[in-house]
Design a protein that fits this description.
25% strand; five-stranded mixed β-sheet; 2 domains; 36% helix; Nucleotidyltransferase, domain 5; 7 helices; single chain
Length: 244
């Protein structure tokens, strides 16, 4: 089995893979402890580990928890099965690269737009030649709500777990509606923008908040909640082949 670790800004996602098949997943805190990982792996001998981290770097700790096991810490210098046109590749988030690798694997003959809804929303486009064309970054849902509270004197702090209303009839509801409907409209608009340029476009939605808009956006999308884990595993398999 291969242990795949995706450390994000607000959570860590774990995956166990047998070859290219995802066998099980778990979501834990952004600062995992040894017991979190060993409990998740219980009864499954681990032959390799791959880590993608956008949060606190825990690679050395995890390496000490699993001695004598091959560990790939995915960095911008890691060999990838895709290319990028990004002018500053060293600043391209590892999670975005992993999503692109998996997105291309899902639809290798199409241009693919990967939308990852985490703390921020990222948009990334990859074509059938395995070339990342670029993308965009915008505030996530909670960040939008928090910003309206933090950068004004009177707007209240709103719990993002509340249901998004069909229209705001109170200030709280108006904040929820504005942030939620604004995010939905943004996603629809960006999909329409790229669809006009790429008629064969496929859209993949992933990330912790993908369920918020999966049924709300007007465009046809493919939901892949474990896309980043799948991308990390694909990069691990690719590097293992290079090292054979």
């Amino acid at each position: 089995m291969k242990l795949i670790v995706d450390i994000g800004n607000s959570r860590t996602k774990l995956g166990l893979f047998s070859g290219g098949d995802l066998m099980s997943t778990s979501v834990i805190s952004a600062t995992p402890e040894k017991n979190d990982l060993t409990t998740f792996c219980a009864g499954n001998p681990i032959e390799a580990i791959a880590i993608s981290s956008v949060g606190e770097n825990l690679v050395q700790k995890i390496e000490s928890w699993f001695p004598n096991i091959y560990l790939l810490n995915i960095e911008t210098s890691t060999p990838f099965p895709i290319k990028t046109n990004y002018k500053t590749p060293n600043t391209l988030g590892i999670d975005r690269i992993c999503g692109l690798v998996a997105g291309n694997k899902y639809f290798p003959e199409n241009t693919v737009l990967v939308i990852d809804m985490g703390t921020c929303i990222t948009y990334d486009l990859i074509d059938a030649n395995k070339t990342h064309l670029g993308g965009g970054i915008s505030p996530g849902y909670k960040m939008r709500l928090d910003a309206m509270h933090e950068f004004t004197t009177r707007l209240p702090k709103v719990d993002p777990k509340q249901e998004i209303p069909k229209i705001g009839t109170t200030t709280n509801e108006s904040l929820l509606f504005g942030a939620g409907q604004g995010m939905k409209s943004e996603i629809d608009g960006i999909i329409a923008f790229f669809s006009a340029k790429h008629p064969n476009l496929k859209v993949i939605l992933t990330g912790g908040n993908h369920l918020m808009v999966e049924q709300r956006v007007e465009n046809a999308i493919f939901a892949a909640p474990n896309l980043i884990l799948e991308g990390i595993n694909s990069i691990l398999l690719y590097n293992e082949k290079l090292n054979d």
